[in-house]
Amino acid sequence: MPRNTSINSVLIIGSGPIVIGQACEFDYSGSQAALSLKEEGISVSIINSNPATIMTDNVVADHVYLLPLTCESIEQILQERQIDAVLPTMGGQTALNLCIEASNRGIWDKYNVQVIGVDVAAIEKTENREEFRQLMVDIGVGVATSKIANSFLEGKEAAQIIGFPLVIRPSYTLAGTGGGFVHKKEDFDAALNRGLHASPTHEVLVEQAVLGWKEFELELLRDTNDNVIIICTIENFDPMGIHTGDSITVAPGMTLSDKCYQDMRNQAIKMMRSIGNFAGGCNVQFSVNPENEEIIAIEINPRVSRSSALASKATGYPIAKIAAKLAIGYNLDELQNQITKNTSAYFEPTLDYVIVKVPRFNFDKFKGANKELGLQMKAVGEVMAIGRTFIEALQKAAQSLETGRAGLGADGRQSRNLEEIMHSLEHPSADRLFHIKDAFELGVPLESIRKATLIDKWFLVQIQELVQLEGELRRYQLNNIPRDFFMTLKQKGYSDVQIAWLLGNTTEDEVYARRKELGIQRVYKMVDTCAAEFPAHTPYYYSTFEDENESVSSDRKKIIVLGSGPNRIGQGIEFDYSCVHGLLAAKECGYEAIMVNCNPETVSTDFNMADKLYFEPVFWEHVREIIELEKPVGVIVQLGGQTALKMAEKLEEIGVKIIGTNFSNMDLAEDRGSFSDLLKDLDIPYPKYGVATSAEEAIQVANEVGYPVLVRPSYVLGGQGMSIVINDEDLEKAVVNLLKNLPGNHILIDHFLDRAEEAESDSICDGEDVHIIGMMEHIEPAGIHSGDSSAVLPPFSLSENVQNKMEEYTVKLAKALNVRGLLNIQFAIKDENVYVIEANPRASRTVPFIAKAYDVPYINIATKVMLGENKLSDFTIERKLKGYAIKEPVFSFSKFPEVDKQLGPEMKSTGEAIRFIDDLNDPHFRELYNKKSMFLNAQ
């Protein structure tokens, strides 16, 4: 059926601020859906309160509403604009819940708006635990024994019937919020209360716990003609009991028998067809008994999900793009396969490679948190790796995590504490994958590890083989490793760093040089969705060690943009926003724009965003070989956060041009001590400081500068390791802890300006002129990390004198640091004196906020300046903000109820929202202003 011509305008509901369980995968899906609808000549409006996303950029939609996700906001849009249909399936649980609420209030009927992509009845069937259970029974799909409970008494009765262990699943919640396993009767009452309170409908499912069963996910698409295809089968490395967002996952399924897969496939199609009027993407989760392959359904999500983003990147099949077209009436066989360009979208991808996703945790930001994984998601991000084998992809994923690991072990960071290791195997946390390898190295039998983890034996055998390979490698020296064995090591995913460590007395560079002598180097394979059965036209590559290289370097002038890796607190979606705009600007300037990143949730890793995408770890060895192949004019490190910046020195060492501010000036700003010396030379006020390399030196410095002091390491992001201390004893503990976690780092001891105000400036410099894009005033005082503080643009209470000084110091520093591109400066203000705290000559989390508030193409301008294609004088920069914009941090403390929620110099927020106000009499602003007054006047 051709598209529904009555739909000429569509409203897409976004997912709001980033929180644990709902991250930038919905920026990817919403952006892709909007662009897909615009291709059809449809006017697209978007509502989302998240300023850090590409989705809320005017390059994506025709009309962007940066409003709170409420029915009142929806009605405001419908009054202002003629909307024919609403698409709620691209914004996660938040969008679905808002769609239901608007439907219950009669808003869609009042304004004659169709709900497309799913209907409200289907949402109710899948989100209401009892309706879903009954539907599965009716269609003959197995489910765990369960009872619904709307009260404490009903829950107690259900537990008595089902027996322990059991699981509590609240209805209508995100990422398992409020759910959990109950192993003992005495723990049940508290868990039941928690679940009932978490559910907006005060409803929970009390269910038989199938702990230790295997878990699988299927990503499906369905059209209005009831055609259904399976896009991807994803197997969880971790067994049932761990939220899928916290599980290591693998595609395609590695341990499924064909009979079980066909049965699961048939059940998934039956489930999707049973939930009503539905055209679009869907995620189905199953559990499989490893003893007899009995299958039970866990849940079905009639929307794109975190797994949809992963499946899209795993297969190259643009799920959100096709789902959007299905929602407006097209059938699958009427749409073009975006990869082959000559077959239809009615096909199921075939993978001749293996995908591994590993979650990224940030427990270091939540001191005292319960790190054991369960039904409530705790990961803040994830990485995806592609290899020819499972073990190659797994090692590449470990290299991608940004946790300092060089692969799966063999890097000097192994644990040798058997008791700690065995506890970790039985009580999974972020390190369990690495502890499995550690256990094998200590001689723990495979069967003991299997019983402790309940992980399928096939996966464990793959990891065990690494230990055997490492034992064999230790028999050699670098100059006599047989070429075939060297090749085997690289095909198993070993980095040069790991090989050097295993050999001892050898460096990474020496290993690199030796394998080049032997002719062992990476080749690049195309992600083509159909295992080369049809020619593919998408420039989307991964590396491996074989003979044929499918990535042919063109003779065009090229720019490589290094991405930001996995999302984590302190380095989030705002850096992906910057990278995407950097790519677009480079393409506009005539460069071939090449992206390197490993985050499957992001827009930057969409197959059609860059001219060429390398889905690879942002890890030195991988980046180096891509540069050798492509020979770019230069590399942009300024947009990808600390991940990319860490490459700058090595790039300079091998003679690769860094586009924008050079390494020495970036390093000067990052090195806290050297930067303070620069401020002194420029006669710019700064807090008294000193640099220490030991606790003894730190105490001496602190007594010279005066308590309280701010203790912080150089070269960190998100306030990692920062603390405010008031005496020698606390200082000694802080410094010892820092040097333990960041050995060799210089510790900066600043006098802390108590009850000072904090502000920021963001600017662009072309080497001659400096343009301040925006200045923000914080609500919280100095001492609260800027990412955790509400900020108002433009300043509302800073005097003209203070603002003039901020501008003066910004210009001075931009020129002294020889900035080419972006510069963010943080200030402390006390008694009309302006002090500079730090300067960041790179993209920062404030960039998208200012860009959206002022409607200025901030990164686009900065990138063209970095490339030397334009001077600032070539641009007319107009600020379109009327009134004020407020940036408000959003936290995910509900995932860690046991942690200290007090804010300080180390960042804890997971996302942010934007709010616009007309004037300073706005009630919301007055509340914030009163809070600021309270902070500053506190005794």
From TrEMBL:
<dbReference type="Pfam" id="PF02786">
    <property type="entry name" value="CPSase_L_D2"/>
</dbReference>
<feature type="domain" description="ATP-grasp">
    <location>
        <begin position="676"/>
        <end position="867"/>
    </location>
</feature>
<comment type="function">
    <text>Large subunit of the glutamine-dependent carbamoyl phosphate synthetase (CPSase). CPSase catalyzes the formation of carbamoyl phosphate from the ammonia moiety of glutamine, carbonate, and phosphate donated by ATP, constituting the first step of 2 biosynthetic pathways, one leading to arginine and/or urea and the other to pyrimidine nucleotides.</text>
</comment>
<dbReference type="InterPro" id="IPR036897">
    <property type="entry name" value="CarbamoylP_synth_lsu_oligo_sf"/>
</dbReference>
<dbReference type="InterPro" id="IPR016185">
    <property type="entry name" value="PreATP-grasp_dom_sf"/>
</dbReference>
<keyword id="KW-0665">Pyrimidine biosynthesis</keyword>
<dbReference type="InterPro" id="IPR005480">
    <property type="entry name" value="CPSase_lsu_oligo"/>
</dbReference>
<comment type="similarity">
    <text>Belongs to the CarB family.</text>
</comment>
<dbReference type="GO" id="GO:0005524">
    <property type="term" value="F:ATP binding"/>
</dbReference>
<keyword id="KW-0055">Arginine biosynthesis</keyword>
<dbReference type="GO" id="GO:0005737">
    <property type="term" value="C:cytoplasm"/>
</dbReference>
<dbReference type="InterPro" id="IPR058047">
    <property type="entry name" value="CPSase_preATP-grasp"/>
</dbReference>
<comment type="pathway">
    <text>Amino-acid biosynthesis; L-arginine biosynthesis; carbamoyl phosphate from bicarbonate: step 1/1.</text>
</comment>
<keyword id="KW-0028">Amino-acid biosynthesis</keyword>
<dbReference type="GO" id="GO:0004087">
    <property type="term" value="F:carbamoyl-phosphate synthase (ammonia) activity"/>
</dbReference>
<dbReference type="GO" id="GO:0004088">
    <property type="term" value="F:carbamoyl-phosphate synthase (glutamine-hydrolyzing) activity"/>
</dbReference>
<dbReference type="Pfam" id="PF25596">
    <property type="entry name" value="CPSase_L_D1"/>
</dbReference>
<keyword id="KW-0436">Ligase</keyword>
<dbReference type="InterPro" id="IPR005479">
    <property type="entry name" value="CPAse_ATP-bd"/>
</dbReference>
<feature type="domain" description="ATP-grasp">
    <location>
        <begin position="133"/>
        <end position="328"/>
    </location>
</feature>
<keyword id="KW-0460">Magnesium</keyword>
<comment type="subunit">
    <text>Composed of two chains; the small (or glutamine) chain promotes the hydrolysis of glutamine to ammonia, which is used by the large (or ammonia) chain to synthesize carbamoyl phosphate. Tetramer of heterodimers (alpha,beta)4.</text>
</comment>
<dbReference type="GO" id="GO:0006221">
    <property type="term" value="P:pyrimidine nucleotide biosynthetic process"/>
</dbReference>
<keyword id="KW-0677">Repeat</keyword>
<dbReference type="GO" id="GO:0006526">
    <property type="term" value="P:L-arginine biosynthetic process"/>
</dbReference>
<dbReference type="Pfam" id="PF02787">
    <property type="entry name" value="CPSase_L_D3"/>
</dbReference>
<protein>
    <submittedName>
        <fullName>Carbamoyl-phosphate synthase large subunit</fullName>
    </submittedName>
</protein>
<dbReference type="InterPro" id="IPR013815">
    <property type="entry name" value="ATP_grasp_subdomain_1"/>
</dbReference>
<dbReference type="InterPro" id="IPR006275">
    <property type="entry name" value="CPSase_lsu"/>
</dbReference>
<comment type="pathway">
    <text>Pyrimidine metabolism; UMP biosynthesis via de novo pathway; (S)-dihydroorotate from bicarbonate: step 1/3.</text>
</comment>
<dbReference type="InterPro" id="IPR005483">
    <property type="entry name" value="CPSase_dom"/>
</dbReference>
<keyword id="KW-0464">Manganese</keyword>
<dbReference type="GO" id="GO:0046872">
    <property type="term" value="F:metal ion binding"/>
</dbReference>
<dbReference type="GO" id="GO:0006541">
    <property type="term" value="P:glutamine metabolic process"/>
</dbReference>
<dbReference type="InterPro" id="IPR011761">
    <property type="entry name" value="ATP-grasp"/>
</dbReference>
<keyword id="KW-0547">Nucleotide-binding</keyword>
<keyword id="KW-0479">Metal-binding</keyword>
<keyword id="KW-0067">ATP-binding</keyword>
